[in-house]
Design a protein that fits this description.
Structural class: mainly alpha
Mean pLDDT: 74
Number of helices: 3
Radius of gyration: 10 Å
Largest sheet: none
Distance between the termini: 33 Å
Number of domains: 1
Strand content: under 5%
Low-confidence stretches: none
Length: 48
């Protein structure tokens, strides 16, 4: 079973998801990766 992280990191990724409808899908996929921080940072900083 994969470790997801603490509640703070989950909430930190979930709060911006309210602003962009594609973000929940990206969060779900990247949380399954071994090191999601780098990919999530790139996704959040990319122009929309």
């Amino acid at each position: 079973m994969l470790a997801v992280g603490d509640l703070g990191s989950i909430l930190g990724l979930a709060l911006p998801a309210m602003a962009n409808p594609t973000l929940p899908a990206a969060v779900t996929v990247t949380m399954l990766l071994p090191n999601p921080k780098k990919l999530m940072l790139g996704y959040l900083l990319a122009p929309t």
